[in-house]
Specification:
Blueprint (H helix, E strand, L loop, with lengths): L2 H39 L13 H58 L1
Helix pairs in contact: 1-2
């Protein structure tokens, strides 16, 4: 075995070690992404403790989250408008109530005279 062969073997062993470490990192990244998807969807019932189960269903549910978020944002905007309208109406009713109380007080004063 020549010096070039020994150097090449060392180089390849280093490359293999680097690739194994990168593969381990990718595996951990995928595991973290899967856990995030599982937590986001709340579909813990389809995946067991070992991580086996219907991951396709989980990821399909993740794909639906965007649409559900848009629907929720529309609903929130609608409810904010409704709240604002109800708040304005409530203020109007409070004003009317105060006017009626004042009128009742006037009438009671007239009756007592």
């Amino acid at each position: 075995m020549s010096l070039n062969d020994t150097a090449r073997i060392a180089e390849l062993e280093h490359e293999v070690a680097r690739l194994r470490a990168a593969g381990k990192d990718v595996g951990e990244y995928i595991k973290a992404l899967n856990q995030t998807a599982l937590d986001a969807t709340g579909m813990h019932d389809v995946i067991n403790e070992k991580g086996d189960g219907d991951w396709q269903a989980v990821w399909e549910n993740v794909a639906d989250l965007g649409e559900r978020l848009r629907q929720a944002e529309k609903r929130i905007a609608f409810l904010r408008r409704e709240y604002r309208d109800l708040h304005v109406r409530c203020e109007e009713l409070v004003g009317e109530r105060n006017e009626l109380r004042a009128r009742v007080a006037e009438l009671e004063a007239q009756v007592q005279r």
